[in-house]
Write a sequence for this structure.
């Protein structure tokens, strides 16, 4: 039987948008953006696969964690890469994520909680390198809830929320760390989440991924000056859960 990774190797990346300056893909969960010292054994990278697919060198302008799916932008030349990277840093490019988290969250809230920079390598940790706290802000809106008849930990039922997350800063693992901070970790997060909830979703729903998806990116195109919106469809895992929880059709597309 083929593994998910082998199946992904057989599929072309889904291109959501492409012009003479920018290309955007729907990154699958489990695919690294580029080579990383954190995951030296990984052999598949979105940058390389997209370059081979379109026959043109591409420049990453932002990142998505390996387990996160959704809109991933690349520039097609160095000048555009610099402009787009600056736009991301200055919050001129708006990002919207969809996540499933543990428990019932507030309906609307803003998480304003500084995060320490995460060390990238064991060598940095060994050398005692420390990094400063950085401002980190995430707005979220609860779209739906579900109560499942499964006992988890000391609770007789399991409750979950479907969230729309809008970060206005871009810190490493920001959404995952922010949701952990307010005690509503994202389901499927093996680093910042809760193992008992991850296990429930694996066993009951055959869900083996982080339930975080970069759903929409909007920005003013640096060349055409047109308002550009790119939306990434959900994968089969999300779609199956939406259907099972009666959440299909409630994700805002306006």
């Amino acid at each position: 039987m083929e593994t998910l990774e082998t199946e992904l190797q057989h599929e072309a990346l889904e291109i959501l948008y492409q012009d003479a300056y920018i290309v955007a893909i729907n990154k699958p969960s489990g695919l690294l953006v580029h080579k990383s010292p954190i995951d030296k054994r990984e052999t598949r990278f979105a940058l390389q696969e997209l370059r081979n697919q379109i026959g043109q060198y591409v420049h990453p302008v932002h990142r998505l964690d390996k387990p996160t799916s959704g809109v991933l932008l690349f520039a097609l030349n160095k000048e555009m890469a610099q402009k787009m990277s600056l736009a991301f840093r200055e919050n001129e490019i708006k990002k919207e994520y969809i996540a499933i988290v543990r428990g019932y969250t507030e309906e609307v809230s803003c998480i304003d909680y500084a995060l320490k920079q995460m060390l990238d390598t064991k060598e940095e940790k060994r050398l005692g390198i420390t990094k400063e706290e950085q401002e980190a802000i995430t707005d979220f809106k609860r779209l739906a809830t579900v109560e499942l008849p499964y006992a988890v930990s000391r609770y007789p039922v399991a409750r979950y929320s479907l969230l729309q997350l809008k970060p206005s800063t871009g810190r490493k693992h920001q959404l995952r760390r922010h949701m952990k901070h307010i005690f509503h970790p994202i389901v499927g997060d093996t680093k910042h989440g809760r193992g008992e909830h991850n296990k429930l979703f694996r066993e009951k729903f055959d869900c083996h991924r982080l339930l975080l998806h970069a759903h929409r990116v909007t920005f003013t195109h640096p060349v055409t000056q047109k308002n550009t919106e790119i939306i990434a469809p959900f994968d089969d895992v999300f779609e199956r859960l939406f259907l099972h929880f009666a959440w299909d059709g409630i994700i805002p597309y306006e």
Summary: The first helix runs from residue 4 to 9.
